[in-house]
Amino acid sequence: MHPPLTLHRHPMCAEIIEEFQKCHLEHPITKFFGECTELKIKLDRCFRQEKALKRKANFEQSKKLKERLQALRKETAENDS
């Protein structure tokens, strides 16, 4: 199962999404028998790459936040002493 295929939410995969939707429109019955499977596989790979990039960015952001919080806690502890 894939996320909703909205182009603005998945700019990295926009071309593949358009091809996949076009394939489904052009092949309304044979899509159930594997006509668009190759595009679906490409789309899944693209979504995985996109998710990995987001995960990495979120991890870096959380790392910076943790460092700021630790510095703030240390500063607060020193001021209280």
TrEMBL record:
Keyword list, A-Z: Disulfide bond, Mitochondrion
Transmembrane segments: none
Family, per entry: Belongs to the CMC family.
Protein name (record): COX assembly mitochondrial protein
InterPro entries per UniProt: Cyt_c_biogenesis_Cmc1-like
Location (main, coarse): mitochondrion
A Pfam short name: Cmc1
Subcellular location per the Swiss-Prot or TrEMBL entry: Mitochondrion
Domain of life: Eukaryota
Gene Ontology CC: one annotated term: mitochondrion
The organism's taxonomic lineage, starting at the top: Eukaryota, Viridiplantae, Streptophyta, Embryophyta, Tracheophyta
